[in-house]
């Protein structure tokens, strides 16, 4: 894949193509943004263009170096991923040995590091020394969704390339074009930062069922307290879905937000579009302030779970709060 073919991220691609066209290639880049926004795809496309011998602001796809890259035969490209929970000192030392091999070569070497924020202190210090004193022409591409967790001295030596969340409308169109279920896609694009994350969510076991549970509880939770408590117990906490309380609350937030969208005449922005008739009948039964309060109760339940309150207890308290208004 070339840079131009990577979906979205217009600003990031513009920066990288200017770098290539001007020849002002830095020794380190920090690709910073939420997971699923195409950081790895653009890192690989940029690396391919760096090896391309045709010049210009993108890989030509035809020269020997491009063909080697496309067939996975580029010996001067190295990739580093966390070993377990972190990138360790031994991995950086091994990278340095790999990059030092054939130091007489004038060919540029490139390495891509995933989850750079997970580097241990020792690994970070070792990488810093490597950035300051490379043994050959080298470009580092560091990927992170938490730049503040990267050693400040490393951040200061790298050009930051920002990756922004994809607009939901753009992601939805792409997912639908590739044949993903429309109703699931409408929900997934509001829960993920990028197309890859949305696609993974759609394919996740239980996502479709969780959506159905949210619809049932969204309806019962406002007027049928006993029925809602039984549904939560039987369809949520007595099943594997009970382990995905964060997903449940995120979808429930979208349910209440749909009530506000309907009141405001923004039906095209609704997530639970298949429930338009029911929502249309009930959305005006309460004020916008009421629906906002329902969202606040839902967010509070998420905070309680994060504070180690049992998910079932937090959800049951949420249902009590919704019933009380």
UniProtKB/TrEMBL annotation:
<dbReference type="InterPro" id="IPR050238">
    <property type="entry name" value="DNA_Rep/Repair_Clamp_Loader"/>
</dbReference>
<dbReference type="GO" id="GO:0008408">
    <property type="term" value="F:3'-5' exonuclease activity"/>
</dbReference>
<dbReference type="GO" id="GO:0003887">
    <property type="term" value="F:DNA-directed DNA polymerase activity"/>
</dbReference>
<dbReference type="InterPro" id="IPR027417">
    <property type="entry name" value="P-loop_NTPase"/>
</dbReference>
<dbReference type="InterPro" id="IPR004622">
    <property type="entry name" value="DNA_pol_HolB"/>
</dbReference>
<protein>
    <submittedName>
        <fullName>ATPase</fullName>
    </submittedName>
</protein>
<dbReference type="Pfam" id="PF13177">
    <property type="entry name" value="DNA_pol3_delta2"/>
</dbReference>
<dbReference type="GO" id="GO:0006261">
    <property type="term" value="P:DNA-templated DNA replication"/>
</dbReference>
